[in-house]
Write a structure and sequence with these properties.
single chain, 207 residues, mainly alpha, Four Helix Bundle (Hemerythrin (Met), subunit A), 8 helices, 52% helix
């Protein structure tokens, strides 16, 4: 009897996302875990690296910004299972160069979606992405001009002080127009991710 074909786990729904955020918040001090939005950006930054990053290398940063280990007795398995599912979901979308919904949470409906609101909504995701690029700097340190524009789309939400020795990215940020609204900013993050996958040479169905 032939084995049943492997089926990927379904995307995380709202309830599972809420569980994931609760599990992150339950990580004990003094560890400083990523929140859900920063985690999402971090995973994207890991996936677009020119060479695959093993889970053992990126997982500690999920639990703590400085990569400190969880204390003995703290069960990370439920959190790790959800993070793995999101990583697989993002890797499949990025590998196929198709749209994905980044975990970027907009302002409350009662709050006007102006430039300040857009920046504050995108910043956690962008900071997670930047953490990945700073932890695994091969892509950030590349001289490939095809990465300059996409990096500018991400780093303009963080400030140029995060860009040591990246003058080309700074110049590209200066030339950018502000996104019209949060929806446009979200589209930019997806576009930047897929363009960086191209710049990193990740295989895609088009090749």
């Amino acid at each position: 009897m032939a084995a049943a074909p492997h089926r990927p786990a379904p995307p995380l729904g709202d309830a599972e996302l809420a569980s994931l955020q609760a599990l992150l918040e339950a990580v004990p001090a003094p560890l400083e875990p990523l929140d859900a939005s920063a985690l999402d950006g971090f995973l994207c930054g890991v996936i677009v690296q020119p060479r695959p990053v093993p889970e053992r290398s990126w997982w500690p940063r999920v639990l703590d910004l400085d990569g400190r280990a969880a204390p003995p007795g703290f069960d990370t398995a439920p959190l790790r299972a959800l993070v793995r599912r999101r990583h697989a979901e993002l890797a499949a979308a990025i590998g196929q160069r198709r749209w994905f919904d980044p975990w970027i949470f907009g302002p409350d409906d009662a709050v006007q979606d102006d430039g300040a609101d857009t920046a504050s909504a995108v910043r956690p995701w962008a900071s997670g992405f930047a953490l990945a690029l700073e932890t695994f700097p091969e892509l950030l340190g590349s001289d490939d001009p095809s990465s300059t524009g996409p990096l500018a789309l991400v780093y303009r939400h963080l400030g140029t002080e995060h860009l040591d020795d990246a003058d080309a990215v700074r110049e590209a940020i200066d030339e950018l127009e502000a996104p019209g609204d949060l929806g446009a900013a979200v589209e930019e993050m997806v576009r930047a991710t897929l363009l960086l996958a191209d710049a990193a040479g990740l295989p895609s169905p088009r090749r």
